[in-house]
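Look over both lines before class:
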Amino acid sequence: MRFAEGRVVGEHARRFTGDGVNIAPGRNIDPAGVDQRTREAMARGESRMFEAGFVAGGANYRADIFERAGDAWAITEVKSSKWPEKERDQQKKLDLHVPDVAIQRWVAAEAHVSVDQAQLMYLNRDCRHPDLSNLFTTVDVTGKTEPMVLALPAAVATMHAILREAEAPDVPVGEQCTDPEDCPFYDRCHEQLPPHHVSELYYAKKQAKKYEAEGKTMIADLTDAEAPNVAAKRQVRAVKSGTRIVESELAAALGQLKSPIVYFDFETVQLAVPRWPGCGPQDMVAVQFSAHREGFADNTHRYHLASRGGDPRPALIDAMVEACAGAASIVVYYEAFEKSRIKELAEWFPEREAELMDVHDRIVDLLPIVRDHVYDPEFHGSFSLKKVLPALVTDLGYADLNIREGGTATAGIYNLLFDESLDTAAQDALRADLLAYCERDTEAMVRLVGVLRDLA
């Protein structure tokens, strides 16, 4: 899904930039071939190239956009993420992406090509479909690449030395595992930690590192007073006693759930380049829901999943309003997600705002009811539904489904709506898998509330 959207972004970036020659339109051109094609294009006077690149200094690259800038050249790296609004988040993006263009500048210099300008091109958060004329915003990072360019010869030499070793280096886990982003090998390195390691302490990354440095590597080594928040204190007590803790206030908290109840869950698709009116880049658009009904004369499970072609949102709104009609409580797990999607729908369709906000205002969040009143050692520091469910509802899970978590569901919805290679049978099978997954999420809440009532 990300590669497919990346290709869409690339196509728009090329149109946004202007005419040029695509050096490597396919994926099967080797780096040496790209280098040769780039040099040939330069020799014949091309002023703008896409996917141009060089091989030099023990490294190679392809530049999204490579164009003349006076007597030298400029490199632009196109990203499928939005340029953030907050300065702190902007700096995080630069920390993550400036090395991309620094490497390109260095390899070009090693290939005896002068690159005097380096830019990052991001999706513009202010862009709204159908006007995509301002889809991109460009950030000049030439100065930020300079120190990295100087450091690269030694860094590349070190990388080559590591690759020649028979065994991978033994690097301790640390901040580099999650900063600036989660390492793709995070699970491989961290799964070696024993259960109830201090790294599992709820919402306490910094404190966990401090305790580990002090030699307190297990949650059982801690006292209640050392746990930094109420849920973590409950976690310490549960782990040390080896038992599930249920607070006496659970019954009162469950009193928020007024009958009749609709247990509700959205699934979304996230498009880098918006396809529907009012949507911006990377907006999460609700296109599917599941609704289990309890306490109605008709407790039939309700559901909706978008079909290919056209704007999916009006039909989803119709089905959602009908499914939630008459409910005193609409129960979700982590209300910020569902409420944000409903608010966005109300912004996109102001004529439906009253109906949508009526649904919004009846939402009750099950997550804090669990987090503030129950801790089972099998939660392992997480209150996600995927952790809570197997600990409290032992006979219900996701292992029997073809789609078992939200990221796969998002990718499945994307394929269902936009992958032209899927035939009818493949679409039908994918639709069935998506419906089964979303239904399991709301069934899980029904069963979880039943267990919580018994515990209370």
User: Anything to note?
Assistant: The chain has a mean pLDDT of 95. The chain has two domains: 2-163, 244-456.
